[in-house]
Design a protein that fits this description.
Beta-Lactamase; Arc Repressor Mutant, subunit A; alpha+beta; globular; 45% helix; 20% strand; 246 residues; 6-stranded antiparallel beta sheet; two-stranded antiparallel ribbon
């Protein structure tokens, strides 16, 4: 029996509904039905169950749903001792204060990277980095780092993704990954957003495999290629400390 057959369909659908709130804090029945591909009648029954158990709450005026207190109660009982978003936060704050730019921490999940922690620069003009954002692994300094230090099979699986952007040539991307492995860091200039640049380094396990990507980002007026090259050793030192702590 496969793992897929062992899953409970109704539980899977209910969890899919909860995951929709990663992309929106308040969602209507219609929006949830569209996002999950389920019928409104099915979504209505699942929402009633989740609401009854306290995982969702419904606003009477707007008829929109939002996460309930039960979700926060569960989150508060997570083991923060091994949570990198908590464990590495002091080092990220120190790095932000030292280099005065926004610091982010990314992990890979499937064909995407997720920002699991961020510490924003104190500058008035800065790179705003919302936590929880997902981005495809085809673009950006952190994507290059996460891909460069992954196994060959994972890299090829990601690049075989039907959603791989047509404008990103796979051969050129592979060459960039080789360059990242040789230098030990990756940079990007206006790849995802106009006017912004970023530099990223790997956080490695003791066996050399990739655990996460540490990144520094800001406006190109302060993040020139020369400046980022100067920043690289500082980021690598902090990444080493993170590897030892995590």
């Amino acid at each position: 029996m496969t793992e897929e057959k062992k899953t409970v369909r109704s539980a899977e659908r209910a969890l899919d509904l909860l995951l929709c709130f990663l992309h929106g804090s308040r969602l209507s029945l219609t929006e949830l039905a569209e996002q999950t591909g389920l019928s409104k009648s099915t979504v209505f029954r699942l929402l009633a169950t989740l609401e009854n158990k306290g995982f969702l709450e419904r606003d009477i005026d707007t008829e929109k749903y939002h996460l309930g207190l039960r979700v926060w109660e569960l989150a508060s009982r997570m083991n923060h001792l091994n949570d990198p978003a908590i464990l590495l936060l002091p080092l990220m704050e120190r790095l932000r204060d030292q280099l005065e730019e926004t610091v982010s921490l990314y992990i890979r999940e499937g064909n995407e990277r997720i920002r699991i922690q961020a510490v924003e620069s104190h500058h008035a003009i800065r790179r705003v980095a919302p936590i929880g954002v997902r981005m495809h692994l085809s673009v950006g300094a952190s994507s290059k780092v996460l891909m460069a230090y992954e196994t060959e099979s994972i890299r090829e699986n990601v690049m075989a993704d039907p959603d791989w952007p047509e404008g990103v040539a796979r051969t050129s991307f592979r060459n960039q990954l080789q360059d990242v492995r040789e230098k030990g860091y990756a940079i990007s200039i206006e790849e995802r957003e106009a006017g912004t640049a970023a530099i990223s380094v790997p956080i490695l396990r003791r066996d050399g495999s990739i655990r996460a990507a540490l990144a520094l980002s800001g406006p190109i007026s302060r993040m020139s290629p020369e400046r980022m090259e100067e920043m690289a050793p500082v980021l690598q030192q902090v990444a080493q400390e993170m590897s030892e702590r995590w």
